[in-house]
Amino acid sequence: MSRSEEVPSVAIGRGRAGSGVLATAFLGLLLLGLCVEPVEAAETAVPERAAAASVPAASEAGGCVESDTVLCLHEGRYEVTVEFTVNSETMPAKVARSRTRDSGLFYFFEPNNWEMLLKVLDGCGENQHHWVFAATASDVGIRLVVRDTTLPAQNADGGMIVNSRTYDFPPIVRRPQGPNESDEDYQRNVLAKGHPALTEVGAFPDACTATS
Prior knowledge:
Layout: H1 3-35, H2 47-53, E1 71-73, E2 78-86, E3 89-92, E4 94-96, E5 103-107, E6 114-123, H3 124-127, E7 129-136, E8 141-148, E9 164-169, H4 183-191, E10 198-200, H5 207-211
Antiparallel strand pairs: 1-2, 2-3, 2-8, 4-5, 5-6, 6-7, 7-10, 8-9
């Protein structure tokens, strides 16, 4: 057999061997793909979007409806609004994002400048009340209103039910520095004073009965 006749035979042999390798590799990849668990779409969900969706819209019972100026806590049970007053003008505060089930933030002028933290806590296991805590980082006048949308204004006997709480933070007016007052004393006694923190553990005494 001539040398020229051997080349096609060898080439064909190599072609068959290559086809077998490719087929084996393809089958292996196919089997591997069947064993790999697909990634579910829920694994890539954005947490903030899911949290926002958990707040219900207005129900037949008149539940909280979240908006730019209304914060809903405890799955829409509590409706929270804040107003602030500057130069005798009163304006609604805006809800900052994001928030949690129990707490939220408000801003007055700029979204990146948060002015107030508010939270409503379930204290039924401690003293049979829901608690309201708040703290400000501002010196303007502030009014905070927290309403329990699940409670009516009166019970069956006509008695009043505590279904709303209003908290006022008067504007802070700082006096001028005294002639004999040091800068350090003026800073500590005047400039450093702000709104006191709100820690009312006796708020909403009827809230625990409504959920028991």
